[in-house]
Amino acid sequence: MRTRLTILSLYLMGVILTPAHASAAPLADVQNDRVTLAFPNTATFSATLNASSTITSVTLEYGNEQQTCGDVIAKSYPQFTPAASVNISWTWDMRQSGSLPPGATLWWRWRYTDQSGAEFVSQTQTATWLDDEHDWQTLTGEDLRLHYYELDAPFAQTMLDAGLEGLRRNQEQAGLETDDPIDVYVYPNYDDLRDAILYEPAWTGGLAYSDFNIVIMGVSGSNSTWDQATIIHELTHVLVGHYAFSCIGTIPTWLNEGLAMYSEGELDASMRSMLDQSIRGNTLISLRSLNGSFSELPEKANLSYAQSQSVVKFLIDTHGQEKISQLLIALRDAKPIDTALREMYGFDTDGLEDAWRKSINAAPRPVSAQATAQPTPTFVPTYVPISGAPQAVTPTPYVIPTSSFDDSAPIGEQTGPPLTLTISLLCFCLLFLLIIGVIVLGFIVRKDNYKAVKEQAGKHE
To answer: Is 434 inside any structural domain?
Structure first.
């Protein structure tokens, strides 16, 4: 959502995107080929390029390893003075493009042409996008690598064990597995976490990057149970995002967050109490409202997470985990949620809410006189070197589940005045100004006529 390059930002940086298939060229004579990281802001690529005659053009081809919608290469054209041997450099500024997650793998190579027209290409180099200020340690388990610093080894092992348990639960409960090991970067506090990423909200306590197979999180320092739940929660987002990866499909937030909450286990006492109170008071949030972002209001946010967990639990307990996997595949294939639900379960979002409410002895769903408009996926993939499913980056708060959604009105409804009212008010203002203008103009004309008559009368005296 915020940490991947867009094709527009690359163009603004002077970058051109081309298909990844590169034509064969002789191996270049390159020295001091390296990247200098100023984490988390910039990566500067530099090298000395040599040729038998004057080098006339230089291209830096670069990118990073991740799950993408299409194989593309980012290209940059650094400035240099033509010569047989040139020192070249170019800086990738993450503050303009959006930053990569810690642990991402960068790659780059140089392609250049000399005066004779001969083209050369260097060997592809790689580097890990990570700070070198801390003494990172690594624990490895099956399909999971946990990286940490300034944490004691027993606690790190506890976190690794929690992550492995999370992978096991997701495989058994929802059929979610990973093809490649997932890297988890654990920061000793939330301040260090926020210093490692750009443009994330101050409340962020964890982030899941499903297209990179990376999770980053901070440690509370006081609540080991919370920390273990966080790693399970974020790993689930990676598994869901990877399993349902799509450039044109979307996953409703209630399903994504519900699966993550379900993998943590039963709701804690406070969230269970809040859900029960909402059931008794008939203040549950409509499931369609939970298709989009959750509220920033703490109580509604917690209720949104609790409801999502309860709905997913209902689906799995009633219909089995296999159908959840099929539902995710249908969403990956860009089917709208209502279509996917009908195919898997025989009901749409409203029907699911009705069945779920009945199962928890809640009041029937309020029926609006107006139908709720449903979004339709846009079949336009995004071709960028660092790209993935729209839901790939999922933040987890370190205090309260929140989002950037404005909850001043129900999701899906307008928060401003209706368009017809706005146009009517605008027309009224213009008409009012026109009337005032006519009155003023009439007053001026009348005054001029009176003056002319008076002057004419003076001439006759």
So the answer is: no
